[in-house]
Structures are given as structure tokens and as C-alpha cells.
Amino acid sequence: MSNYLVAVTDSGFPDLEQEKRILKPLGFTFATGQCKTAEEVAELCRDADAVLTQWAPVTAEAIEKFTKCKVIVRYGIGVDNVDLEAAKRRDIPVVNVPDYAVQEVADHTLSLMLAIVRKIPQVVQRVRDGIWEISPCRPIIGLQEKTIGVAGFGNIAKAVLHRAQAFGMKAIGYDPFVNEEAFARLGVEKVDWDTLLSRSDILTVHMPLTKETKHVFNENAFKTMKSTSFLVNTSRGGTIDTEALINALRNGEIAGAALDVLEQEPIAPDSPLLKMDNSIVTSHCAWYSESSLLRLQEYAALEIKRLFSGEPLLHVVNGVGK
Questions:
Q1: pTM for this structure?
Q2: Residues with a known catalytic role
Q3: Which molecular-function annotations from GO does this UniProt entry contain (predicted)?
Q4: Interval 113-172: pLDDT, tens
Q5: Hey, what domains does the chain have and what are their CATH numbers?
Q6: Which of 5, 115, 222, 235 is the most buried (most CB within 10 A)?
């Protein structure tokens, strides 16, 4: 049996039994850490044949010190913590796990939408305070015939639209990388960026964080949106300029925002977003359910198994070995 080493730079899982069940029969042993710095990543992963990482900084400096690494797998969808170009220079494929929590994130997106539109947290608090009103926190809008807009048209956005259409909502979407036919197949109208902003009653964000998408929701974007519209973000916090959002909420440029992701996490205890009635913040937990947790670990380990069993990798994000 071959002897391989897999280094787990860090993780928030209760244990690594899923990974061990899949990889130990192939001859893998495990080196585990909770790396916070590139130096710690370099030290742990120096002689690893494969790397599993969640949040640790897998930087160019760390990757340069890897001597045997054949694959880097990110636990999750985004790969912000891995230097993709540095891995490419070393001919190391970087792989993500895009399909482990599609339904959970879609569920959470709809939950946030309903909570912010129906003003659920405020109503609950009023009832707890002894205030019983049958038309509280006016105005509250109905969803039927309202327009939901998606920024990005990947698997999660599609799952969100599938749910939203059950509420009788009209759907529009923006994604420069997807053709009109793909939108039309789901009954969604493809629109340009300004149209997405100006027509959406609820605008939900499903974009990766790139140079092009950083702060794409900025002062100008909020001025283009309807004053009655709501913004929901379960993708990447950096797509929204936080200060511009706070100002837009204060000035009534949009009606509300519901966020599971933020530029700075955890959110600062004194953030105005925590004090505003027209803002809801959850703790980057849209991905989580007990079953998605297990799927994430399993799917990540299966990518390593594929490579070392001579099978093609499913989800390479830096173009190596495709």
C-alpha cells in the first residue's frame, strides 16, 4: 500500500472521520493543524501529498515551500484564501466543493428575504415587549407579482429562483457569463446591471468575490435601486461596500438589507447594522445543516481520492490538469 500524507491546515468540524474513512484505505495518514499564518501552513504542508484547507492563508509564500503537493482542496465554494496563480505555477490543481450546500444556502436566502420583507424580527420583539398589533411595523409588502433579481446565475441562484417563483414572483437576472437561453429555460429574463438594480424589488447576491465584483454594490448602485427594494447577500461580503450600505439604509435609498456575509467577520459589536430596524445579520451560517456538514467533508475527501485513483478531478478552479 502506498504511503501518502494529507495535511488539513484548519477546520471547524467536530472530527475528520469522513475524510479518514475515504482516504485511509488508499494509504493516507493525516497531519492536522489550526493554521493562522502562511508560515504555519508552509510548515504543516511541506511534505504533504495533498492539502485540505478551510480558512488558513494558503499564500504564494506557503505554496513555494510545498515539496510534494499534488492537489489543494478548499472546504467550501469560495477560494479566496488560496493563491490560485501560485498553485498554477507549481502545476498544483486547486479544487473547491461547489455542490455541498446549494439547497441550504437557497433556503437561508429565502429565510432572510422573508424575515426582512415581513419584518419578522421586529414583530417578534414587539410581541415579547407586550405589544400585540394585527398590522404591525407598517408598511409590509406582499411578495406576489414582485420582482426578484439575482446577481449571478449559478446553482444557488437557480435554486433561490425556483423557490421564489413558488411565491408568485417575477424573476430577472444578471450574469455576463451566462447566455439568454439558459436564463429563459428557467423563465428568467436576462437583464443588464443597471436594469437589475432599478427593477428588482428584492435583489439577492450570488457572486464570487473578484476584482470585478468587489464593492459592486456601492454608493452609485444603491442610488440606482428602488427606495422600496431589499438587498439579500449570502455569497461574499466584499461584494458590498459596507459604509455605502449603511448610508443607503440610513438615508432610505433602499428599504432593507439581510446579510449572512460581511466584509469583516465577525461583525464589530458596534456596527450600525446591528442597531438598525431595516437590517438583519446572520453569522455566515447559510451553508450549514448537519447533512451539508458531512457532505462538505465527504466531497472534499473524494476529490483527493479521485486524483490518487487516476480519475479526473471534478471541480478544478485554477485550470491545472483540465
A1: 0.89
A2: 236, 265, 284
A3: NAD binding; oxidoreductase activity, acting on the CH-OH group of donors, NAD or NADP as acceptor; transcription corepressor activity
A4: 999 999 999 999 999 999 999 999 999 999 999 999 999 999 999 999 999 999 999 999
A5: 4-100+290-308 (3.40.50.720), 102-281 (3.40.50.720)
A6: 235
